Amino acid sequence: MKDKRLVPFAPIGSFFPGTPRMKFYMSRLFLPFLLVAALLAGCSGGAQPSGSGSTTAEASDTGLKPVEGKLKVALLTPGSVADSGWSKIAYDGLMAIKTELNAEVNNQEAMGAKVTDAMRSYAQQGYHLIIGHGFEYNAPGVKLAGDFPSTVFVSSSGGATASNAGAFRFYLEQGFYLAGQMAGLMSKSGVVAMIGGDDVPSIRSTFKAFKAGAESVQPSIRVIEQFTGSGADVPKAKQATLAAIDQGADFVIHQANQAAQGVFDAVKERTTSEKPIYAFGANENQNGNSSGVVIASAIIQPKAGFVALAKDVQAGTYKGGIRLVGMSDSFDGVPAIEFLVNPALSSKIPTDVRQQLDKTQISIIGGAFTVPKDEF
Amino acid sequence: MAALEFAANLLRYAAPVSIAALGESVSQKSGVINIGLEGQMLLAAFAATLVGSRTGNPWLALLAALLVGLVFAMIQGFFTLRLLVDQVVIGTAVNLFALGLTSTLFRVVFGQSGQLVSLPDLPKVFGPFDLGMVLLLPLAIGITWFLTRTKPGLALRGAGEYPAAVESAGYSVMGLRAGAIAFGGALAGLAGGYLAIASAGSFAENMTAGRGFVAIAMVTFGRWKPIWVFGASLLVGAAELTQFLLQAQAVGIPHQVFRAMPYVLALAVLVFVGKGTSVPMALGLPYRREK
User: How far is B249 from chain A (nearest CA, A)?
Assistant: First the structure.
């Protein structure tokens, strides 16, 4: 499934706040006309960057009250919730809200021109919380927040907020940094690889963190980066991984969604007892993968972010703003971001490597060290 | 040994497109363009996944894929041959239907939020080669022989050039085209099955990722000659593999440059070999007996 998070028109659409025909403005076809129109209008006013909207987050009378009766939560994703990656995380979070808070939930795939319509119809149906999973849902949410003051609009990442609209973002870079450090400490060949599906900002950001982690312990390490262009093309993910291994890579991390099996199978095909090659799981716990080559996984536990958010909405205490959910945030003792070692392969990890990783993790949780991340 | 490994890897990667393109070339020779190839492959890939993951038997999985490809091609054939529906329109409908159906069924069977699926691989029959890879070249030769050296082959080519003449010679154009569609569908099914079982060893929603359309392009690229179609598929497949090798070596060059490479190569080759017309004259045209 093609990930639409890259599509650039959502922020551009927000340059024209208050226009009722947002969905037309957000169509790809209209983009050139929009640019021309912007030039003709001399860019007079209106061109306020969407990222600076946080000024509106005043703690005034928000119109948000504790929810009476059943909490209703809606989720919009840019792609299939069966993608074993980005959209699946949100779906799992929604399911956690359903079971933990006994909420009524609904979800749909909506992107581009459909976003505003989908959000508005959920709001009209009386949903209390509408989550858009991606930065492109940020601007439409903030725009609709004025029309529906008793509905909360939250997007996964994004910069604009209002009293009843905002963003939250998982700090998966923390997990990728630890994976990078482990790869850097253990790589015998001095070459590690990252295999991506779609080239989107969220994936790029995690790859940068992995690279930073590897270079923090082995400055001269070579980090191969490959993109196949599709999170569904398993054979391509496999071939990209084989090519990286032929270049000497002995640790491979992925952001290939459903195509990840191709990455693991390629590693399995080339690993030998003299020259072992390992893979990292990403997004979800893939340590138990049948290939048997996943040494650890950098995972998102959506519960911590999603249920905490829904609880705030239920209690009427949601305040807007941008929430960063990382290793130090947890729900029921489960941190939002975890780096889990595969117990079946833990004997392959030297003690000093474990100690170093524990040290890094402690300083990340304690706030002494901040893992680099991109804003998107 | 390394060359053998590369050949096996290339065949494993390029086989789905090659098999589908060989079937499509027969179908196009008879005058039917199968735009629904992508959808038939995807449906077959899912069928193979379902059967393969349940039974653990790759051969049963391939058989299921073949049957699914055949059945959907025949349904499509009923629309194009009997009802004379526009071939491009019905093909597009099949593609949309296939994506929706396989995605929905995948979620029903493997959970609403999906999971990574691992499928049983085909056994190797000769060094690193499995049966599918070994049979590819004989298949291309066999199709060529049938089309150029047999009477039904000649009639089939006639159905794609000037169907009225074939009809007056006592052949049934509809029968010839139905046969070609069935053959193309069966190969599309095998291509989808091989994609899931051998090339990927897994299933993902929309996993064909354009391979059906690439296969249709390969038929044009190979000038409707099965051997050339096979060669074109291998060439583009090899360019894809080389692309990944270069991407892994180069630093600082955007990956999009490398990913465009196979298509640039295909275009460049077309510029040089694309002279003259070898398109079946009646390609895509519905045939009515009484005119």
Answer: 7
Domain range for B181 = 2-211
Nearest-CA distance A265 → chain B (Å) = 8
Domains of chain B: total: 1
The shortest C-alpha distance from B282 to chain A (Å) reads: 35
> Would you call A257 and B110 a contact, using CB atoms and an 8 Å cutoff?
no
Read off φ and ψ for residue A272, nearest 5 degrees: -130, 165
Residue B195 sits at the chain A interface (C-beta within 8 Å) = yes
Residue B168 at interface with chain A, using a CB cutoff of 8 Å: no
CA geometry: angle A152, A141, A83, nearest 5 deg: 95
Phi, psi of A166 (to 5 degrees): -175, -160
Do A19 and A163 belong to one domain? yes
**Nearest by CB to A80, which of B111, B115, B205?**
B205
The DSSP bridge pattern shows strands B129-130 and A330-331 to be unpaired
- The interface predicted TM-score of the complex, written ipTM, equals 0.91
Say whether both A286 and A310 belong to one domain.
no
Residue B176, in any domain of the structure: yes
The reply to whether A225 touches chain B by the CB within 8 Å rule is: yes
pTM here is 0.84
A38 belongs to a structural domain:
no
In a domain, residue B90? The reply is yes
Chain B neighbors of A240, CB-CB under 8 A: 244, 247-248
Exposed / middle / buried, residue A104 (Cβ in 10 Å: 0-12, 13-18, 19+): middle
B242, part of any domain: no
Residue A50 lies in a domain: no
User: Which residue in the block uniquely carries the two structure tokens 């100690």?
Assistant: A355
**Of B107, B116, B200, Cβ closest to residue A235:** B200
Instruction: Determine the structural domain holding residue A23 and report its residue range.
Output: 4-30+63-170+303-329
- Structural domain count of chain A: 2
**Within a domain: residue A56?**
no
B68 within some domain? yes
Beta bridge partner(s), residue A104: A72
Q: How far is A90 from chain B (nearest CA, A)?
A: 10
Please check whether residue B100 touches A, CB under 8 A.
no
CA separation (Å) from B230 to A118, A215, A319, B62, B141? 46, 45, 62, 21, 10
Closest CB to A243: pick one of B107, B115, B248: B248
Q: Where are the beta strands (DSSP E) in chain A?
A: 72-77, 104-109, 129-132, 152-156, 165-170, 191-196, 222-227, 251-255, 278-283, 294-300, 321-325, 330-331, 334-335, 337-341
Q: Which of B38, B202, B257, B261 to mutate to test the interface with A (most CBs of A within 10 A)?
A: B202
Each residue's pLDDT expressed in tens, for chain A with a length of 376 residues = 444 444 444 444 344 444 444 444 444 544 444 444 444 443 333 333 333 333 344 444 456 888 888 999 999 998 888 888 888 889 999 999 999 999 999 999 988 888 999 999 999 999 999 999 988 899 999 999 999 999 999 998 888 889 999 998 899 999 999 999 999 999 999 999 999 998 888 899 999 999 999 999 999 999 999 999 988 999 999 999 999 999 999 999 999 988 999 999 999 999 999 999 999 999 989 999 999 999 999 999 888 889 989 999 999 999 888 889 999 988 888 899 999 999 999 999 999 999 999 999 999 999 999 999 988 7
